[in-house]
Specification:
Helix content is about 25%, strand content about 30%. The chain is an alpha+beta fold.
């Protein structure tokens, strides 16, 4: 079944324009949502908003959006004011510069989309993909969609495919200096054993298909049993064994297990 495009755009760099179609790169299945029901009759509950000051339920036509600029103080925006602030969608991916792909830290990654050539853009698309691949660089630019302006990175993938990565802006990332790193000396022998452990578990290929979300599978199995009217029983917990406190012993034990 062919992929379904979720939108179209034009990559613009220099005087070159590449019409493309945008495709979703994934289908998230991680979240299994449950509805809140009335236990007595099984009816799905409706969400209501209540004003704590007036102690009354507020209908949707009496709601307004406000931004809290200080404690318990808000500025109110109308729907028209918010709409006027939206970024106007241009359907153009404006490339500003080409950066070494290896220099882009993966912490900036937010979302990923596939790009495919639109009508009349085959040759320019393949040219851009090949040029990016042979130079080891990625195209960095901005793209306006759904009222927002996104920072995006275009990089080549296998078989001449171009991938568009939606990145976080710098001010969206939390400073790494805020994360404690602890203290402690790295001993040469421990480092040697740690490297050996990495070598023992290393592979030359990336095979994500080997892994499944076991929690999701377990929840879906339980849901199916409920649907079929079966009784759900919990499995007994297994003893995980004693904890190895000593780092050197832990590395040696891990190496022995890997061997």
């Amino acid at each position: 079944m062919p992929a379904h495009s979720i939108g179209s755009a034009t990559i613009s760099f220099g005087l070159v324009s590449v019409p493309v179609n945008v495709y979703s790169s994934s289908e998230s299945k991680a979240a299994i949502s449950f509805n809140l029901l009335h236990r007595k009759c099984g009816t799905k509950l409706k969400q209501q908003y209540t004003c704590p000051k007036d102690s009354e339920i507020v209908p949707r036509d009496e709601m307004a959006k406000g931004y809290q600029f200080a404690k318990d103080q808000y500025v109110i925006f109308t729907a028209e004011e918010l709409k006027a602030l939206d970024e106007k969608a241009t359907n153009t991916i404006d490339i500003n510069e080409f950066v070494p792909l290896a220099k882009v830290d993966r912490v900036y990654l937010e979302k990923v989309y596939y790009l495919g050539p639109d009508k009349g853009g085959d040759r320019a698309y393949r040219l851009l993909a090949k040029a990016l691949g042979e130079t080891g660089r990625a195209a960095l630019g901005q793209y306006a969609a759904r009222g927002q302006q996104h920072l995006v990175l275009l990089r080549p993938m296998e078989d001449g495919l171009i991938v568009m990565e939606q990145l976080h802006y710098q001010d969206e990332l939390k400073p790494v200096q805020e994360v404690p790193r602890g203290e402690g000396e790295v001993k040469p022998m421990e480092l040697t054993l740690a490297k050996q452990l990495i070598d023992a578990g290393s592979t030359d290929e990336f095979h994500p298909e080997k892994y499944r979300d076991q929690v999701r599978d377990r929840v879906m199995e339980a849901i199916q049993k409920k649907v079929e009217g079966q009784e759900i029983t919990a499995e007994p917990t297994q003893d995980g064994g004693g904890k190895i406190i000593d780092l050197m012993e832990a590395l040696k034990a891990s190496l022995a297990k890997a061997s």
